[in-house]
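Field: sequence (string)
Field: structure_tokens (string)

Example rows 1 and 2, in order.
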Amino acid sequence: MVSVGTVVWLASELMFFAALFAMYFTLRAASPEMWATETAKLNVPFALINTIILVSSSFSCQLGVFRAEDLKPRRTGGLFNLKEWGMVEWFVLTVILGSIFVSVQAYEYTELVAHGIAMNSNAYGSVFYMTTGFHGLHVAGGLIAFMLIIGRALIARKFGHFEATGAIVVSYYWHFVDVVWIALFAIIYFLK
């Protein structure tokens, strides 16, 4: 039941991001010259590296889900023996990668403001910060959810299907956020 509820909620989130995409394309169609000028200021290689970091967090998340499904919350071997990592270790790595993504995105914002792209500078700035900013808020929400799942796993006397289900539905959300970013990245940074 929790999985179905999460999927229905993610469908509503999809509609929210669809509205943001519609706003982006509408304003872009109204001011193509502005888009050409402003997108030239974007640091595509920098954003690509940040995208790779976020996408790699989906892999660590899924490895944590596999461990949760095996009811293996914590590692059974040494810290550097990745084969013996449990869900907690993989989710901690996911939180680290997601935190790096958000931090790099914040740094990118400061660089863009220094180059004259601010939220209130023009339509491009407004759309750029709204789409990527709302995505960043969703990533931050996912990081909080991961920390709650990690905390629950650490205090649970017996890690069972209840805890595993929580880990699985958080992974649904995380994969959704990653897919949305891939679409945003392709549209904002590559679509000319």
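Row 2 begins here:
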Amino acid sequence: MPQLRNSLIFVAAASAGILALAGCSDMGGTPAESSASGGQVKTAAVIKGLDNPFFQDMEKGIKAEDSSITVQAAQDITDTSGQADRLSSLAGQDYGCFIINPISGNNLLQGVAGLKAAGKTVVNIDSPVDPAAAKAANAVPDTYIGTDNISAGKLAGEQMATLVSEGDKVAVIGGIAGDVTSENRVAGFTEGLGTKAKVLETESADWDRQVALTKAGDLLRANPDIKGFFVANDVMGLGVARAVANAGLTGKVAIISVDGVPEGLKGVESGELTATVAQYPYAIGQMGAQACKAAAEGESLPESVEAPVALVTKENVADAIKAAPAPFEPFENPFEK
């Protein structure tokens, strides 16, 4: 078995489409409206629902950098119109910089277009806006900060390939059908696994633990010889772990998920999960706030910024837990100065 990767791995934060999007904007973006204190800017953030621990950590990162930032969240992962309403409400106030974490590629575009027309700085984090639609609507953000979900999934696939034998069956549990984040993670996983195992058709579990438990149970009954599960986030991964335990197969079926939320790390520590590919919403949120400060100081914002990911296994999970929700090793941060 190849040596496990226990060091932080940096991945390109943007696909070609995202790079193209950022390339359509002025490299320097629009300077945020700064106060007399210099480099300080009144900032608002609109993120996904705080019912998910991933976005709880994102809020913590934003607030850790600047506790004065106003953070509003959607009710849940399906609240596209509610999230858009929150951005619209904040847009009418005297904020100079906006951090956005859209639920879909399009649900915040109308609000972003208005902000750009008003000369505000827009920092897009985690989930990118749709590049073509943003360009058409004159709603291109000033910078994008996030991880490459294809590369994160590929890391999981490469790890799974070390755990299964030639021709074994591997099941895949995705998030909401059609969701870009889920699809990219699954695509990356399939690429990383290669031809080592037979990948069953992806089952969508709506980012929900109970739905994942049910879907995994059904898969195990239909395919009792499954040797591994790739799961598109930790919350669903823990649901899959329960289904595997119910089948009496804990330790016999590998389960690799993505996110690295506290529950996921504890799952790796306890052996419920074999591994998780930790993304760092805390660092993404923190860099989003730092980007607003940089813009207020007149700095040019980069087109896109890499966010760190790390493969967390039994061997390094103690380090990951100790540092959480921050990354457990240094990473490249263009705003750190």
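free_text_note (row 2): The two ends are 41 Å apart (CA to CA).
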